[in-house]
Amino acid sequence: MAETDTIPTHADFSAEGTTLSRSVFSAAALVGDVAVIVGASWLTGIAYHWLAYGDAGPLALFLNAGLATAVLFVAFGVLSGAYHHTRYLSFRSHATSVVRLWTLAFLSVVLLLFVLKTSEDYSRGAFLLLYAVCPIALLVGRYAMVALVSAANDRGLIASQRLYVVGGKSDIAAFLKRYRPGKFGVKVVGTAIIEPRQAGEDAAGLRHAVESARRLNSDSVFIALPWSDLATIDQTVKAFSKIPAEIHLSPERILERFEDVSLVQRGPLSSLQLARPPLAPYEVIFKRSFDIVVASLALIMLSPLMLIVAALVRLDSKGPALFVQRRFGFNQKEFRIYKFRTMMTQDDGDVIRQATRNDPRVTRIGRRLRRWNLDELPQLINVLQGHMSIVGPRPHALAHDREYEAKIGSYARRHNMKPGITGWAQVNGYRGQTDTDSKMEKRVEFDLYYIDNWSLFLDIKIMAMTVFHPHSYRNAL
To answer: Residues near 403 by Cβ (< 8 Å), separated by ≥ 6?
Structure first.
């Protein structure tokens, strides 16, 4: 066994001296969020009361409400790991995290005030203004924090997690090249080369590696060995268990194919979870509630327009106002989708010819309905029936589903979420005819991004883009 410190001893650092420890940073980030929420509560309360009543209002109540919401917000954040310093090396996850945690904390406070029968003391207008403004203020603060942390981490001003890597020479090299630990706030302080099945034969070398990891104040030890080499892994774990450091088994290459791998324990059974449903149970309830509210309001407001469109369809050509076709929904369960009829035909067989540009089967009124997405409005009924969602992957005819599932390996994953009236692919211009496999592959790529990154904020964004973004009207037939 040969042992090499990849970073010279004089370049090593600890959490002391000129560096800011991770625990101090986490506390600072937490206090920053509390200050933002309390400040936003105070300012929005004053602003609302000045505009509505001409006075500053009950300042103590604003501060109390802000403090209560802030305590719940940071408590939920701590439980979800939101204040770990590596979360501040990228801004990508913060929008979803902040909106989710803020909504949960805000609703918890509202429920608490209702239970305590003190909700009448608080202005509903001020509360709604706080709910709208505070996430924006938090995101601005998080963005500034990400910029500061990234710069401080690059200069070594924040004490990174100190990582010691042990394993085969080629395994260590592949691990460092593939994952680049420095990008997410981890400092590799040393390595020890252990060739497979030699740990038991070189006990002195293994002891030397343990002493090196102890001397370098390692926080974590990563064992970069093939999982099949159980004997070497067992010896290495046993040796490094003597120091107060986390011990990790580096991932096998197959795990790179999956986005959300985690260790799951159910009683005595431990398993490596490679995939899970895209939505947690509470998120399913949240999204379904949102769908019911939006679909109900939309049907009430748009019913006069829908009656006019139905009459125009009947007057323009022979046939019913509605087009009904079988589609696959969640978990490939078949349902019947409703649309305003835009064509002379009502195909629903094993072979269905896609509509093409200037297709003679499209009626005069149908062309305009397709252009402005109005033919999709009856699907609000599908949403209330529970077959569809307001936002999700667009459903295709059964014949097309079977065709593309055979061609595109990840196509079937689109059915892991309810289909939608509109979707991420559609607002990015991938709608209409898919006359080439590459077009469908691109649509599937956007659909899977939506499934893997769902949030209420993303749903609202897609709904707004469906109405206002020009890409939503691109490629209409």
So the answer is: none
